[in-house]
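Before relying on records like the one below, remember that each one covers exactly one chain. Contacts with other chains, cofactors or solvent are not represented anywhere in the record.
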Amino acid sequence: MAQASQYDLQILRITPEQEGQRIDKVLSEQIPTLTRSLAQRLCEEGDVLLGTKTLAKSYKVQQDQEITVRVPLPRDLEVQAQQIPIEIVYEDDQLLVVNKPKGMVVHPAPGNEDGTLVNALLWHCRGRLSSINGVIRPGIVHRIDKDTSGLLVVAKTDLAHLSLSEQIKAHTCDRQYEAVVYGHMPQSQGTVDLPLGRHPKDRKKMAVCTDGRQAVTHYEVLEEFPQFSHLRLQLETGRTHQIRVHMAHLGHPVAGDPVYGPKKVITKLQGQCLHARTLGFVHPSTGERMVFTSPLPAYFTAFLSELRGGAQGEKPYEQNL
């Protein structure tokens, strides 16, 4: 729970039109600086109250209720800026698009306190990043895994952050990936619509579960090899590890994935063969539709070349299964 000196106290009165709505939805609509996920976090931390009662994020509000919300005030960034080279694909005063390499963590976390994309961004942007996600994840609108390479959009202002977050929520942000997976897909293109949540036994992993959040992945086969397939994947939603879990659940895990793939992982890939290739969105200020494409990185193209050689009988690929 936030301390008195660290939050802005706001009182909301529930209108007749809001009757029966979830509290997290009401908060995100009524308080400009709150996204739906941030409103849920405030509920979880006990900073949304009806009188002295803390409200769960799924609480349904009633007309004329007075809801007290403690919104944390922005704090000085505590993460250290570090002069780490990063590939900037596009930049203006509102946002920037970064091509993240395989092996780089997006933001600090236990075990990865520095050397992250956020450390590099703080140096590059001189600390001018949106504050919505707090001191650990300034400017981070969406994430990709450490060993997934590719494009990310980063917000410099809170207004840009809110606009981009809403586009992701409304499924109007175009996020296309490419991957190499084991085996052959049942059809040349299709959709995986399976809910995802925390694994019931291993909380560090995700899994398909009936009580999870909706997750939708569209796929298209680009090329097939004797024992692998090269896919293009389009995210409709953006759940944690979504592509990796969906593909593994279908029996076609991403090659090189040490978490959801075979026990004998393809070590030469140094992580999953998954690249965030295309990113499209509407610019928060200009309204212009912007689309960026990242070339497949060297590790990916080298793997494809080896698979093509094996398919032609020149050099069979050792799966290391």
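The mean pLDDT is 89.
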